[in-house]
Inverse folding.
């Protein structure tokens, strides 16, 4: 307990939650001290239960059932409990020993009760605590093999009716519903433990269906319902392990479940049951999957199940067939098939599928770029450099972007034909710029700058027009070689910024002023710059932050 400090609490909670936690120190009640943990209740907007765990390798951790705490945050209530622990540090050993004494005393008292006295106590507590009564009813039904009664109770536990408002369980009530639904898992596990695994298996399946039926009507933001579904799936698997059901029957249920919406909730993988299915069950599972896929070749669940089973059996042809039945128009599915075949060592077929994806693409501009990259790499590896250039040229012609230009350049340089390819590409972009104006001119300027042809880029910007950010890039790249042209750009951009306010605009303006000063220095006209800044200070004198920034950067004072 001694390792807990205010500094650690502040670091865990953050400044805001720490400060707010100070106001709850006096609101703690029912403080319980155990070995390395402390629990309490705190009265805030509502009454919350809070637990602080100390002594871990990563320092203190905690949990609180307030909304902020349920999101995994170290909330103000945990801060308050931590501060309470620090304040009562000297008294904690005595409280812990007192709690142990109480536990020992309770155990001794219960042990001394007669059978009749213990029954009377349990009945009394059941009358006061509805949840305790329900838990004991479930245990009794499980132990007694009352499957009909257990089924009825599980249906009640999974019914959202008592928690729903207008047919929907809101976030505030979702945890209480999840706590109740979780009892169904315990009941099914108890049934398996009592030797009724076949019944437990059947009830688990029914519970999974019931939970899936209400999942869309519950705000499961905290994921508790998903965890219950996972627990039900585990309980089903365990029950199957004990019951050893008929492999073909199990295969049929697994396939049906995998094709149902409930599969998204439980995430049951049929292959986890391979040892229970055996060869006969796996054959039945594959047959059921094929039958479902043939009925609906484009269904996501059907395709996924087929692919999963085919990959597990290393049946590449089936994987290819599943994908080939539902080819995407942008070539993405062709790429998946090519990768599967490559992995299987069938490079020639893989290449054929990749080329087919390009041929069959409805729009080369919209084709999956990963497919183009894949095929270009295969061509390069096979020393088919001319084919790689042809592919990249076609993609660039369709896309006409800087990235496509770069890729064409790389391929053409490798094939030693970049000079001719570059001229054709630039001719295409210049024609676009003539039709589209500044928008088309932007791409021309981009590719020329990327080629380090700054003079040609400047000429293209003048001829076709472009945007301010690109003019700024051009001026920055040309300032040493053509300072007068760069100065004109900087002055125009600065004039626009003088009409704006805010620190961001002031920082941009000062950056331009420094560049303007450099241009005047290169041109041998420093007096012109001084006069310009003097006039600017007079006109902008009300902007105190701008004046301060100019002073900090050594710009002349009026």
């Amino acid at each position: 307990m001694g390792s807990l400090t205010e500094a650690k609490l502040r670091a865990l909670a953050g400044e805001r939650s720490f400060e707010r936690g100070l106001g709850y120190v006096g609101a703690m009640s029912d403080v319980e001290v155990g070995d390395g943990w402390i629990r309490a209740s705190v009265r805030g907007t509502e009454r919350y239960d809070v637990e602080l765990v100390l002594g871990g390798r990563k320092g203190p951790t905690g949990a609180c059932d307030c909304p902020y705490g349920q999101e995994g945050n170290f909330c103000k209530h945990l801060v308050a409990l931590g501060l309470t622990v620090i304040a009562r540090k000297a008294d904690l050993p005595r409280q812990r020993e007192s709690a142990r004494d109480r536990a020992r005393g309770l155990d001794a008292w219960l042990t001394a009760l007669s059978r009749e006295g213990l029954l009377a106590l349990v009945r009394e507590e059941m009358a006061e605590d509805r949840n305790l009564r329900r838990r004991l009813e479930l245990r009794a039904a499980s132990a007694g093999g009352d499957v009909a009664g257990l089924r009825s109770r599980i249906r009640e536990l999974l019914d959202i009716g008592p928690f729903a408002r207008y047919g929907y369980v809101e976030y505030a009530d979702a945890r209480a519903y999840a706590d109740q639904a979780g009892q169904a898992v315990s009941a099914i596990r108890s049934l398996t433990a009592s030797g009724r695994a076949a019944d437990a298996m059947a009830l688990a399946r029914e519970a999974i269906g019931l939970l899936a039926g209400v999942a869309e009507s519950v705000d499961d933001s905290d994921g508790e319902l998903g965890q219950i579904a996972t627990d039900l799936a585990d309980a089903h698997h365990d029950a199957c392990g004990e019951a050893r059901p008929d492999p073909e029957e199990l295969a049929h249920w697994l396939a049906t479940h995998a094709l149902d919406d409930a599969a998204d909730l439980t995430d049951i993988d049929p292959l986890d049951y391979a040892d229970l299915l055996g060869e006969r069950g796996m054959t039945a599972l594959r047959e059921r999957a094929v039958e479902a896929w043939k009925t609906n070749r484009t269904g996501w669940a059907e395709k996924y199940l087929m692919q999963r089973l085919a990959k597990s059996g290393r049946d590449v042809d089936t994987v290819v067939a599943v994908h080939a039945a539902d080819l995407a128009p942008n070539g993405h599915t062709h790429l998946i098939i090519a990768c599967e075949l490559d992995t299987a060592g069938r490079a020639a077929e893989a290449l054929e599928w990749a080329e087919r994806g390009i041929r069959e693409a409805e729009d080369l501009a919209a084709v999956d770029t990963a497919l183009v990259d894949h095929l270009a790499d295969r061509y390069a590896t096979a020393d088919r450099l001319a084919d790689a250039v042809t592919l990249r040229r076609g993609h660039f012609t369709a896309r006409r972007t800087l990235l496509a230009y770069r890729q064409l350049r790389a391929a053409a340089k490798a094939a030693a034909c970049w000079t001719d390819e570059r001229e054709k590409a630039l001719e295409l972009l210049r024609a676009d710029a003539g039709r589209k104006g500044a928008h088309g001119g932007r791409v021309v300027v981009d590719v020329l700058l990327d080629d380090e042809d700054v003079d040609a880029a400047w000429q293209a910007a003048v001829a076709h027009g472009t945007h301010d950010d690109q003019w700024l890039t051009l001026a920055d790249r040309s300032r040493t070689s053509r300072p007068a042209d760069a100065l004109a750009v900087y002055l125009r951009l600065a004039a626009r910024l003088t009409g704006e306010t805010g620190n961001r605009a002031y920082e941009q303006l000062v950056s331009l002023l420094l560049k303007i000063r450099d241009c005047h220095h290169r041109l041998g006209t420093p007096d012109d710059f001084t006069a310009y800044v003097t006039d600017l200070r007079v006109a902008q004198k009300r902007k105190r932050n701008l004046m301060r920034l100019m002073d900090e950067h050594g710009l002349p004072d009026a």
Observations:
- Strands lie at 28-33, 37-43, 47-53, 61-64.
